[in-house]
Amino acid sequence: xxxxxxxxxxxxxxxxxxxxxxxxxxxxxxxxxxxxxxxxxxxxxxxxxxxxxxxxxxxxxxxxxxxxxxxxxxxxxxxxxxxxxxxxxxxxxxxxxxxxxxxxxxxxxxxxxxxxxxxxxxxxxxxxxxxxxxxxxxxxxxxxxxxxxxxxxxxxxxxxxxxxxxxxxxxxxxxxxxxxxxxxxxxxxxxxxxxxxxxxxxxxxxxxxxxxxxxxxxxxxxxxxxxxxxxxxxxxxxxxxxxxxxxxxxxxxxxxxxxxxxxxxxxxxxxxxxxxxxxxxxxxxxxxxxxxxxxxxxxxxxxxxxxxxxxxxxxxxxxxxxxxxx
Length: 326
Ligand SMILES: C[S@@+](CC[C@H](N)C(=O)[O-])C[C@H]1O[C@@H](n2cnc3c(N)ncnc32)[C@H](O)[C@@H]1O
Hints:
Layout: H1 19-26, E1 35-38, H2 45-53, E2 58-63, H3 66-75, E3 83-87, H4 93-99, E4 107-113, H5 118-122, H6 149-155, H7 158-169, H8 174-184, H9 190-200, H10 211-221, H11 224-238, E5 239-249, H12 252-265, E6 286-288, H13 298-303, E7 311-317
Parallel strand pairs: 1-2, 1-4, 2-3, 4-5
Antiparallel strand pairs: 5-7, 6-7
Bound molecules: S-adenosylmethionine (SAM).
């Protein structure tokens, strides 16, 4: 759904990650009247740079979070009707694109810059940060009706909870934390959870002992890995031949999903290597522009520590790949 958004309060500063590499990868000035999608527009940093570089391009700006989208609307106001906004998950990219007349198979470039933005962490009401007291919400879209972090913490059994903490947060003390959570139920606020974790786990690195748990809960609440997995084929389908998909991830599991998908789609045959004659019939639908991910250099990491774990992968849809993303 394309929605008009209300004006916002002061936007938080969010520095776009790997900006130069994204612009180089999407190469927007090469296309005349290009059509682009930013599936995670956030504060609009990447989007503004793209629209500045490609002076006659049109952009569909999507964000699941109504507050992020409102900030993007302010940032991108100078570009007027060259930008269309849509609130919802990037999984709805094909529908949102169709609503504004971007036909499937004619989009020049798509960017997904995954995860959380600085304004989420800075917003004391959202529950993403253990540094400020807030309800344990963590939904990108608080109006979605989906379960909150508090709902997960207060209803899941110990094994399911530990599984979330271990797989999405790489938390080695997942079982101990899960047990403590169950004993302390009901949990309502960020500081209640952070203090509980600090009382049972001692940090062995420079991180607060609650860091990994908060990351894991956020990923689970928003089904972040599922959303990426479901969206990659949809995104490739909507690209035109020669169009490019750029994805920035911040988590090893996310990067693995993207890497596996790109490697698979770039291959002509998926039969076991011992098999001499191909029986699978799989044909490559993309060319990997980045066989290895692009990562930020030391200068960028110093200027923007949030970029530390970023990995950018870019794929180009092959000319002959029409219809192969079904
Ligand atoms: C890292 S920020 C993007 C920052 C942006 N590139 C910029 O330059 O300001 C990620 C954004 O993606 C949004 N997001 C997360 N999951 C999403 C999803 N499934 N669909 C759409 N937006 C999503 C978040 O609300 C957040 O605003």
